[in-house]
Specification:
Rossmann fold, Helicase, Ruva Protein, domain 3, five-stranded parallel sheet, globular
Length: 340
């Protein structure tokens, strides 16, 4: 009996049907987004992986690559409540979470009423998150981690599903407040948004310089998103792949005795990934497997999510930077070695 056939026995018949349903819904989602987004297939897949794994994503790319457009149209196709927060140096935590204001009631009395901030949405775009000071960033990241906010001593749950997509510009760093490594760790994926190809750029120029702008249809409901998120948690993963994810994470820790880090890594990495990375490797692999219609996690699923999970969790040294060695290069080399 094949491994794939054996794996289906770990899922109920209902779950097998949900996997097939998710695969079809994802195909429709890509078809709808293709009406307004040219290319960026890898970016779309990684955003979908994060969404169905109940993670959050940080998109990094220069201006003009349709990051904001992609996120807003994604919310439209998912029929989810969407809000955009433009992070600026004068943005305060209450501008995100909301605050209490005095309102006059019908009988003439005055009382405090809580006015919800833009964080109370299913999909929240935190645009240029590195432009706000640390206190405001912390309020946003606390909401991401706890799925609730605390205002004037009251704890309020955020709506489900709750999905944060933050953006930052890697080029313009003047007047910004870079996210500390501990806060970067809250993001499941760091997604690099690159330039389009020449043909794609020609298509973009043709599409965006006309009066006609396509409208998108909703292809996935809120209830379906929650159902698919629950399915991802039930996806089976072989133990040897769990061990591989853990070993890959541990090998990034160049300073930890017994981590298994190779000798060539020592001068290149000053700090490696923590245990949350292994958790996200497995969750990301589960989500990707389900999106592709598989009934189990495969090696290729872990390999495909390794770079977006680990790249922002590895601190390279000055030696690495001077030699032009990026965290992406390090991760790919580790994957090659661990697969050998």
């Amino acid at each position: 009996m094949s491994t794939e056939a054996t794996a289906t026995q770990d899922l109920s018949n209902d779950d097998v049907e949900i996997v097939q349903e998710l695969q079809k819904s994802y195909a429709r989602l890509k078809t709808e987004l293709a009406k307004v987004i040219v290319g960026q297939n890898e970016v779309i897949e990684r955003i979908a992986i994060c969404l169905f794994a109940r993670g959050h994503a940080l998109l990094e790319g220069v201006p003009g690559l349709a990051k904001t457009l992609l996120i807003s149209r994604l919310a439209e196709t998912l029929n989810l409540d969407f809000s955009r927060i433009q992070f600026t140096p004068d943005l305060m935590p209450m501008d995100i979470t909301g605050t209490e204001i005095i309102q006059q009631t019908d009988d003439g009395r005055r009382e405090f009423q809580f006015v919800k901030g833009p964080v109370f949405a299913n999909v929240v775009l935190a645009d240029e998150i590195n432009r706000a000071p640390a206190k405001t960033q912390a309020a946003m990241l606390e909401a991401m981690q706890e799925q609730r906010v605390t205002v004037v001593g009251k704890s309020l749950d955020l709506p489900a599903p709750f999905f944060v997509l933050a953006t930052q510009n890697p080029v313009e760093q003047e007047g910004t407040y870079p996210l500390p490594e501990a806060q970067l760790d809250r993001f499941m994926f760091l997604i690099d948004v690159g330039y389009p190809s020449r043909d794609e750029e020609v298509d973009i120029a043709l599409r965006t310089t006309t009066e006609e702008q396509p409208t998108l249809s909703s292809v996935i409901t809120v209830e379906e998103v929650i159902k698919f998120q629950s399915l991802v948690r039930r996806m089976p993963v072989p133990r040897h792949l769990v061990e591989l994810a853990v070993d890959l994470t541990r090998k990034t820790r160049s300073k930890e005795p017994g981590s298994g880090a190779p000798d060539w890594l020592q001068p290149l990495v000053s700090w490696g990934a923590g245990p949350r990375a292994a958790q996200y490797l497995i969750l990301g692999a589960k989500s990707r497997a389900a999106l592709h219609g598989s009934y189990m996690v495969r090696m290729e699923d872990i390999v495909e999510v390794a770079v977006p999970v680990l790249s922002h969790r590895i601190m390279t040294t000055f030696n690495a930077q001077s030699e032009g060695v990026s965290s992406h290069d390090i991760i790919r080399r580790l994957i090659e070695e661990i697969q050998a």
